[in-house]
Amino acid sequence: MKKWLIRCLTVLAMVCLIPGIVLKAAAETVPVYCAFCGIREEREVRRYEKYDSAYHKVCVDACQNCHKDGNVTHLQVHTGGTQGPTCTEGKICEDCGAEYDIPGHAWGEWNPNGDGTHTRICTNPNCDAKEENVPCGGDPNATCITKGKCTTCKGQYDGGHDLVHHEAKAATCTEIGWKAYDTCSRSGCNYTTYREIPALKHDFVYHQAKPATCKEIGWDAYKTCSRCDYNTYAEVPALNHDLVPHEAKAATCTKPGWNAYDTCSRCNYTTYAEQPALNHDLKQHAAKAPTCTEKGWNAYETCSRCDYTTYAEQPALKHDLKQHAAKAPTCTEKGWDAYKTCSRCDYTTYAEQPALNHNLVNHDAKAPTCTEIGWDAYETCSRCDYTTYAEQPALNHALEQHAAKAPTCTEKGWDAYDTCSRCDYTTYAEQPALNHDLVNHDAKAPTCTEIGWNAYDTCSRCDYTTYAELPALNHDYQAVTVEPTCETDGYTVFTCSRCKDSYTADPTDKLGHQFGAWSPNGTGAQSADCLRQGCAHTGSTDCRKFTFRTAEGETLTFCPVCGQAENAAQLEKIEAATAWTISGSLSAEDVTARTNGEYLSVAFETAGSLTQPTGLVRLALPAGLLEGKKLVRIAPDGTQTEMPFEAKNGKLIFTLDFANSGLPVMLFRLLPQTAAL
Question: Which pTM value belongs to this model?
Fold first, then answer.
């Protein structure tokens, strides 16, 4: 008996240690409707279990009448606890002990890191969380050539290569290879992962040479490759005689000769046959005496067949020279350089230099002026006094008369005077300008709408003025914006800082109240506070209640906006519910989904008033809502139909058809998977 009691206490202690499960110490009951026998009864709460971040399950015993529905659970909102100081610490529910209302990080703006990534940090002073080195992206024009602009942080980043894959190629003895690699197909980008594998080179096997003979073939030393068919073998044919031709050499007077013959470079084969020396064939030559420029010789003999000779040369005598002085040429007479002659022959170095002619220098003509003589163009010689110069006398002045001109304020004047039409001769005498006779005028400052001017002068004699217009300043409007509130429109007041002229523009509509969750106020109406900062308005509307037949003889009457039910537990709002249209219209996307663990209502409201969808609407609910259950739609007449759904990203998504519905609300029932409709 004691062992059994110890086991029970141990199991009880272990259950209490499981997170999200809390056993109730005191008796607590909730009303429960049995789907099998139809009896509604108060059942005792046994424990609380965490359902999700917003709800916990209230677990009760099976139906005491039919005992068929097993343990029944209801959803209740987490309550109690104190908010933790950090972004990841929530409240601790006083019923189930689960953590809830975790605020999450208050992320700041994304900032580019300059390397194609961006980072953001949590703005909560008690939190040091950060998301860093997140790749930039989102720009469809970003490439490896053109930097993109990140749609998240607005920083620049490289969009990456447009890769083309290339297969590998193995290296051989004579050709390089490569591993499989990628290149970028964009013009101007030379990106590649190409890595060359060098040629293997031949694995040589060396073979010794075998010389060819006159009768047998041979070969040179050669090599082959052990990996491929490379071979440098080259056959050397039988040599036969390697004949070397020798030219014939005629016999001379002193040496023997031979006819043309052959020898072999590898053996002593030859066709050589010697011819004996001829001896000299002599010829007699008379003597010749030398002159100034030519050599001479004594009588001598030569051979008609060779260069044998008894010739002995006598050198030339050279000239017996006489010196002659030079004479320079002139413009009209020829000359010569110093030269020599020979006393024995007609040799001379005399070279005539022709007359120089005049070395003419051209002189430009100079026209005579009124006061100076002139001349035509002429020539002189740089070496002598030759000239073609002819003088022309001075012209004297050709006078012209000019009338007088009186001076003005800004221009000089003069008396009557003469000038020469050919030169700069003049009797002109200048009279200075009079300068302005100034009259002073006061300044006038411009205004926003009228021009002005600085102080200025005018002349009493002419139209001279220093007047300079100053344009109107135009209004310097300063904008003060009055923001719209829930109940009043917004606008901007523009006031001139100089003249205080003003006008109102840029109206904006009032915001309307942003109500929080609606709750019943016990008078058949519902109330909600406005959530906008600075607004203390509390809205109140009459509850619009709907009655659905839930079973034979049973009905459920409730308000889908505030969740008040007349014959069931309060329907609590599911904050994570979202909805969007597929077809038709949805005048408000403020979906209100409520549940008490047994029933689920779905409607759409704005400022506490229901709106009527007209087409297909998609509804997304937390995935944990149907844990161990199925969702059944209840028509107003009591017909029950199981709702198909799809699961995606932790959500259950349903399609609601309001096309043929006259009601703006739908009611569903959450049944255990084993329960029948």
Answer: 0.34
Would you tell me how many other CB atoms lie within 10 Å of the CB of residue 388?
12
Q: What are the pLDDT digits (tens) for 378-401?
A: 999 988 888 889 888 988 888 899
CA distance 54 to 75: 9
DSSP 21-70: EEE-SS--EEEEE-TTT--EEEEEEEEEEE-SSSEEEEEEPPPTTT--S-
Per DSSP, the three-state class of 171 is: coil
- Give the C-alpha distances (Å, rounded to integers) separating 105 from 62, 87, 100, 122, 358: 42, 5, 15, 6, 112
Residue bearing tokens 């607590």 = 28
Could you tell me how far CA 577 lies from the centroid of its own chain?
A: 42
E strand residue ranges, 163-268: 163-166, 177-178, 181-184, 196-197, 204-207, 218-219, 222-225, 235-236, 243-246, 257-258, 261-264
- For residues 458 and 617, give the distance between their C-alpha atoms in angstroms, rounded to a whole number: 84
Query: If 0-12 CB within 10 Å is exposed, 13-18 middle and 19+ buried, where does residue 646 land?
Result: exposed
Note whether 619 and 586 are within 8 A (CB): no
DSSP code, position 511: -
Coarse DSSP helix, strand, coil percentages of the chain, rounded to the nearest 5 percent: 5, 40, 60
CA 587 – CA 566 distance, rounded (Å)? 29
Instruction: Give yes or no for residue 292 having a pLDDT over 70.
Output: yes
- What percent of the chain lies above the pLDDT cut of 90? 28
Tokens of 14: 């272990």
Which distant-in-sequence residues (6+ apart) come within 8 Å of 423 by Cβ?
369, 370, 371, 397
Cβ-Cβ contacts under 8 Å for 370 (sequence gap 6 or more): 394, 395, 396, 397, 398, 420, 422, 423, 425
pLDDT tens figures, 214-242: 878 888 888 999 888 888 888 888 888 88
- Domains of the chain: residue spans and CATH: 19-84+91-98 (no CATH), 248-275 (no CATH), 282-314 (no CATH), 321-353 (no CATH), 360-392 (no CATH), 399-431 (no CATH), 438-470 (no CATH), 477-508 (no CATH), 541-672 (2.60.40)
How, if at all, do strands 430-431 and 413-414 pair? antiparallel
